[in-house]
């Protein structure tokens, strides 16, 4: 039986489907608001499996994410990273770096992708990320 964390979106705090992509707020790290994961809804493991239309949709989503983050925060940089080692399903980590953040570059990417999830009773920044995803979802479907 085929099991895939991205296909089942296990552990996601929230997710929205926009066209052929899913936007997920990962459960880690708790203090990195605006961090989302984009993944094709259909199981695909390689960029060569992505259609031209899917590339265009992903580019539009990334553009909308950056615009929304710029309007809501002190965004300095927006990192996009595809690693796909632990989970073979293609997915794009979209990691914001804010002006007041000390971590940069590879250190921030490592922190975002490898930090342990927040304890369930610990407050995290999902409200910000949820508002971000909702705004993007509404803009993209309009």
Quick summary of this structure?
This protein has helices at 5-8, 52-72, 105-114, 126-141; strands at residues 14-18, 21-25, 36-40, 75-81, 92-98. It has 142 residues and is an alpha+beta fold.
Give an overview of the whole structure:
By secondary structure, the protein is α+β, with helices and mostly antiparallel strands. It is globular and about 40 Å long. Helix 2 packs across helix 4 (126-141). The chain has a five-stranded antiparallel beta sheet with strand order 1-2-3-5-4, sandwiched between helices. 24% of the residues are buried. Helices cover 36% and strands 20% of the residues. The protein is built from four helices and five strands. The chain starts with a helix and ends with a helix. The mean pLDDT is 81. A hairpin with a 2-residue loop joins strand 1 and strand 2. The protein has a single domain, classed as HIT-like (HIT family, subunit A, 2-Layer Sandwich).
Structure keywords:
142 residues; alpha+beta; HIT family, subunit A; five-stranded antiparallel sheet; 4 helices; 5 strands; globular
Q: Could you outline the blueprint of secondary structure elements for this entry?
A:
Layout: H1 5-8, E1 14-18, E2 21-25, E3 36-40, H2 52-72, E4 75-81, E5 92-98, H3 105-114, H4 126-141
Antiparallel strand pairs: 1-2, 2-3, 3-5, 4-5
Helix pairs in contact: 2-4
Order of helices and strands: HEEEHEEHH
Oligomer: single chain
The mean pLDDT is 81
Q: Uncertain spans, ≥5 residues at pLDDT below 50? A: none
Instruction: Give the tally of structural domains.
Output: 1
CATH superfamily: HIT-like
Structural class comes to alpha+beta
């Amino acid at each position: 039986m085929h099991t895939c964390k991205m296909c089942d979106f296990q552990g996601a705090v929230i997710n929205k489907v926009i066209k052929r992509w899913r936007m997920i707020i990962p459960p880690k790290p708790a203090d990195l608001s605006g961090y989302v994961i984009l993944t094709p809804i259909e199981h695909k493991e390689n960029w060569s499996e992505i259609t031209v239309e899917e590339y265009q949709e992903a580019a539009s989503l990334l553009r909308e994410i950056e615009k929304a983050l710029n309007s809501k925060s002190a965004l300095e940089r927006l990192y996009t990273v595809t690693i796909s080692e632990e989970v073979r399903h293609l997915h794009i980590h979209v990691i914001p770096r804010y002006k007041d953040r000390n971590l940069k570059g590879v250190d921030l990417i490592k922190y975002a992708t490898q930090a342990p999830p927040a304890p369930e009773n610990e407050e995290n920044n999902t409200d910000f990320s949820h508002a971000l995803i909702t705004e993007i979802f509404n803009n993209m479907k309009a």
